[in-house]
Amino acid sequence: MRLSSYITVVATFIGAGAVCLVAAGFAVTLIEDTSRTAVLRELDKQSLTWADADTNGLQVFLIGTAPSEAERFKAVSTAGSIVDAARVIDQTEVADREAFAPPRFSIEILRNDSGISLIGLIPETASSKTMREDVAKLVPNEKVSDLLESAKYPAPEGWAAAMELGMKALRLLPRSKISIDAGNVSVTAMSDSEAEKRRFEQELIRSASSQVNLAINISAPRPVISPFTLRFIIAADGTRFDACSADTEVALDTIVAAARRAGMSAAPDCRLGLGVPSRQWSRAAALSIDKLSELGGGTVTFADADITLVADEGTDQSLFDRVVGELETGLPEVFALESVLPVIPDASQGPPEFIATLSPEGQVQLRGRVNSKLVRDTADSYAKARFGSGEVYTASRIDESLPRDWSVRVLAAIETLSMLKNGSVTVTPEKVRVFGDTGVPSAKSDITRLLLEKLGDSKDLSIEVTYKKKLDPVLGLPTADECEVQVTEIQSGRKITFEPGSGNLDASAESILDDMAEILIKCPDDMRMEISGYTDSQGREVMNQELSQTRAQAVLTALRERRVLMSRYVAKGYGEENPIGDNSTEAGREANRRIEFKLIRPEPPEEVTTTLEAAAETAQDVAERASEEGTSDEQN
Is 211 exposed, middle or buried (0-12, 13-18, 19+ CB in 10 A)? Predict the structure, then answer.
């Protein structure tokens, strides 16, 4: 009895314990799920979706990878606000922080009469360290203020190229501000003249590489323009300025707008300068251009306050009178107008003329008429002083019936010719015609100003001067002779080679042809050159000639593919002719297999006889024959 009671009591306790265990397990599970759900809900609410939660009994484990330490702390705080913070076990990690981005490297270089200042942040590299030394060497007698800081980061892409260009600008420009950062150089500077400004700009542009963006702002003092000149032409071949001057940007815009109304489409080459005769210059110029447009053609020329308007031949007299009257009434008081309506000349009589011609080789011919021996001798001496005594050929004859100011026109023509690279100046009693090429952008304006100053403002000028970059000495482009020398120098250490017995270029010839093309592209457009091919004496003569012709043509084609203008080049094969080595040795035969570049020089200019000179010579011959026949009759 006692045993069964004991068993009953024990069983009761065991059953109660089991029930407690089940109840406790259920309670723990409920607490775990409730805690995890509540924490996850709050994490999502705080946009901490990277974090996850797990539970083990009363403990809440935070897991996940936080993007930053701040995000990690925020997640732990959020979980601690839902459950007891002591229950939160932080098992999160923080993502590896990316390396700090390098700072922006840049330099400001200021140079003036007080010295040089270096300001900015540069990468700590060997080239940056030597930059300070380079600057000190550049201006050994000037003060250098070094305010540069450096950082231990690699130089960004484009930094070295920008530094190289910046140092080039610093050497070139004595008064400047140069801003440098990776791949960019900005230059603000001052020059002493327009010519110096152009030289600076061209030097910087040539030095800039494709890796660097270059911004240039170089200012130059405005020149004094004397006389202050403007010449506008409306002709059958187009509407243009031969000379254009303005005192301000606003005045320039006013003048250009009038030219646009008159039909000019090309961009005008106008100069801003000092010396304007009146603040009403732009209004007077615009009004004159508008009135010339109403006439339909002609020229209007300003020389300071003097204006000359020349209508086209055949302009209606009543239209001319009305337009001139309106122009005279509308002009500001300081300006004086001279108007000319040319009379149609008698076509049966040609005017006397004087012609000065300059060839591309520098040879000068003076032909036509002069009014005295003294003028002829003076013109000859003046031309020799300008062009060299060995380059002048004078063949002018004396005509005492010429106008009194003919000598002035002749000397002005020679002076004008000296402003051209090649061309001619023709003088007649009513017109001075200038035709040719120049390498100076302002040559047309300078020539117009010179002729107006020498001849007066009522002369009819025809100025057909073309600016060609290849003739510009500022750009430093080679002449035809220099091109020949440079191409020959390239071949002095290297050779254009071909596949054995073939006209196909060898792969090793690519680099030398690239270098040649780089030079020939800059050469004058009118340069003529022969590409000559030669072989050794092995094989039949006819086959050697054909092979040399094929190889010369292959070189011409290869250069054309490199964008060299080849219209004036010829390819010619000479076979085994003109050997430069001994064909009995391998070294000699190798030397004879070659390509040569030879300049084709123009024939000397033929003497040109003008129509009037021919007529005069014919009349003189007839008179001499008649005199001889009369003498013969008397003797018989």
Answer: middle
Domain match, 114 and 175 both: yes
User: What's phi and psi for 249, nearest 5 deg?
Assistant: -65, -40
pLDDT surpasses 50 at 217: yes
Q: Beta strand 59-63 with 88-90: parallel, antiparallel or unpaired?
A: parallel
Q: Residue 164 phi/psi, 5° resolution?
A: -60, -45
Question: Is residue 327 situated within a structural domain?
Answer: yes
Q: What is d(CA 82, CA 477) in angstroms, rounded to the nearest whole number?
A: 82
With contact defined as beta carbons under 8 Å apart, do 218 and 197 qualify?
yes
Instruction: Name the domain boundary from 185, 219, 253.
Output: 219
Residues 6+ apart with CB under 8 A from 512: 490, 491, 494, 495, 496
Query: Rounded CA gap, 255 and 245, in Å?
Result: 9
Q: What are phi and psi of 63, to 5 degrees?
A: -130, 160
Pairing of strands 93-94, 65-66: parallel
* Residues 513 and 459 reside in one and the same domain: no
Residue 124 DSSP class: -
Closest CA to 287 of 309, 266, 265: 309
Q: What is the mean pLDDT of residues 332-346?
A: 81
Q: Work out the burial of residue 250: count CB atoms within 10 Å of its CB; fewer than 13 is exposed, 13-18 middle, 19 or more buried.
A: exposed
Mean pLDDT of the chain: 82
Of the three residues 410, 444, 471, the one that is the final residue of a domain is 471
Choose among 437, 439, 434: nearest CA to 231: 434
d(C-alpha 346, C-alpha 270), whole Å: 38
- Which residue range is the domain that position 236 belongs to? 229-340
Per-residue burial over 489-502, b if 16 or more Cβ lie within 10 Å, else e, is ebbeeeebbbeeee
Lowest mean pLDDT across 35-49, 272-286, 336-350, 466-480: 336-350
Q: Is 405 left (phi over 0), alpha (psi -120 to 50) or beta?
A: alpha
**CA dist 244 → 218, 436, 629 (Å):** 22, 20, 62
DSSP letter for each residue of 253-308: HHHHHHHHHTT--SPP--EE-B--S-TTHHHHHHHHHHHHHHHTSEEEEEETTEEE
Q: Which tokens is 404 given?
A: 């009194």
Domain containing residue 25: CATH number: 3.30.1340.30
Q: How many residues does the chain have?
A: 636
Query: Are 31 and 56 found together in one domain?
Result: yes
Tokens linked to 345: 């000349």
Alpha helices in 192-267 (DSSP H): 194-207, 249-261
The one-letter amino acid at 441: P
Q: Is residue 170 part of a domain?
A: yes
Which structure tokens are listed for 180? 């440098």
Q: What is the pLDDT of residues 252-294, one digit of tens each?
A: 999 999 999 999 988 888 888 888 999 999 999 999 999 999 9
Distance CA 484, CA 494 (A): 16
pTM of the model: 0.47
Look at residues 355, 382, 557 and name the one whose alpha carbon lies nearest to residue 436.
355
Distance CA 487, CA 523 (A): 11
**SS3 state of residue 418:** coil
